[in-house]
Amino acid sequence: MILPIVAYGNPILRKVGHDIDENYPNLDKLIEDMWETMYASNGVGLAAPQVGRDIRLFVMDSAQIFSNMDEKDKEEENYPDAPGIKQVFINAHIIEEHGDDWAYNEGCLSIPKIREDIYRAEEVTLEYLDQNFKKHTRTFNGVTARIILHEYDHIDGKLFIDYLSPLKRKLLKRKLDDISKGNIKVDYKMSFSK
Predict the structure, then answer these.
(1) What is the rounded distance in angstroms from the CA atom of residue 91 to the CA atom of residue 79?
(2) Is 136 a known ligand-binding residue?
(3) How far apart are CA 57 and CA 39, in angstroms?
(4) Count of CB atoms situated within 10 Å of the CB of 89
């Protein structure tokens, strides 16, 4: 089932998510619905707060980026994380971020039609549970790390626009206000605060 994506302005996007256990109600169905919602919205990641749940859960698929990349782009850049991964992350917690910060033009399904260059670390080491509640500690890099860090922010109550300068945020205020009021058209289902 495709779920409505919570729009900027909803307080749940600012809540820090809580850990869950395998008894969380209808978890497999929620994960299945999150995958379906993410793909239907042309996203590469989706966090539980974006579908109205204040839990530490997100899904991501960086393999899409590599499969949609043309050969010229693949040759021009070194992508250490190619061909990408498709993964469920439950109760994720960052152990360490490594490497230099690098810029990448990010967007967010909860903040449609706004894209900005955001600086994030090259690598991140995470401790998390997979969908079977098996524990992992793993280091991710490249675009995969970028998506993970973006989605991780969601379960910590942060948004990519929080990394912008106060001036840039001020310049985006009208667009952000329009999103929070529902004065925006997107080609996927959204839920706006009233």
Answers:
(1) 27
(2) no
(3) 17
(4) 22
| pTM for the predicted model, two decimal places | 0.94
Where in the sequence numbering do the catalytic residues fall? 151
5-191: CATH topology is: Peptide Deformylase (3.90.45)
C-alpha closest to that of 143 among 58, 84, 67:
84
- Cβ atoms of 52 and 17 closer than 8 Å: no
- Please say if the pLDDT value at position 66 is more than 90: no
Q: Which H or E run contains 57?
A: strand 57-61
Q: Give the phi and the psi of residue 7 in degrees, each rounded to 5.
A: -85, 155
| 108 annotated ligand binder | yes
Amino acid at 122: E
Average pLDDT over residues 2-22: 97
Question: Cis link prior to 11 (omega < 30° from 0)?
Answer: no
How do residues 119-163 score in pLDDT, each as one tens digit? Answer: 999 999 999 999 999 999 999 999 999 999 999 999 999 999 999
Is 90 exceeded by the pLDDT of residue 65? no
Q: Which two tokens stand for residue 42?
A: 């042309």
**E strands, the chain, in order:** 5-6, 45-47, 57-61, 86-108, 111-129, 135-141, 190-191
